[in-house]
Specification:
3-stranded antiparallel sheet; 10 strands; globular; 34% strand; binds zinc ion; mainly beta; 175 residues
Length: 175
């Protein structure tokens, strides 16, 4: 599973992160060793930040500016963020760590977080897909329930794992 992690140490200036490929989700955190805390820089879909990634051909990786991540983070709707089990402070300055998260990994993280508003009947995600309610039968991901979904563009109804409600696209329209 592709994911990146890199720490910056000492007095080195921290102004960007390095990442190999576009993640489905991205979490960037700042580790403050003096205070012993973690602050959040970015938490949201990879889509939103990827257009700002600069490719470095000689190294075969991309860089993303921390200032840009902070800026985009403010525009990420709360329901598209990976819910923290313990709330994290927003970024100040210092050492940075980050993690690109693929979808399977996100569903795993959600198992340990409380039920989000995406699982409430009537929730409509940004692809205009509406949650019609829990079907009370197990999904095909570990520890996930199935939800009835309806595309508000074409009316197509289908089933989705709870962890996918927020990001599902219509299987009919997007075919
Ligand atoms: Zn549709």
């Amino acid at each position: 599973m592709p994911k990146g992690q890199r720490k910056y140490k000492g007095t080195q200036k921290v102004d960007s992160i390095v990442i190999r490929e576009k993640p489905d989700y991205l979490i960037v955190e700042y580790l403050d060793k003096k205070r012993g805390c973690i602050c959040e820089i970015y938490n949201g879909p990879g889509d939103y930040v990827w257009e700002y990634a600069s490719y470095v051909p000689s190294m075969n990786f991309y860089t993303l500016r921390v200032s840009k991540l902070l800026e985009i983070d403010k525009t990420v709707p709360a329901n598209e963020k990976i819910e923290a089990v313990v709330p994290i402070e927003k970024f100040c300055k210092g050492e940075i760590k980050f993690q690109g998260i693929q979808k399977e990994e996100k569903s795993f993280k959600e198992q340990s977080s409380k039920k989000g508003k995406t699982l409430i009947t009537g929730y409509v995600n940004r692809n205009n897909q509406e949650n019609l309610g829990c079907l009370n039968k197990p999904g095909n991901h570990y520890n996930q329930m199935l939800y009835a979904m309806r595309c508000n563009n074409c009316g197509f109804e289908y089933e989705a794992n709870g962890c996918d409600v927020a990001i599902r696209k219509c299987p009919s329209c997007s075919r």
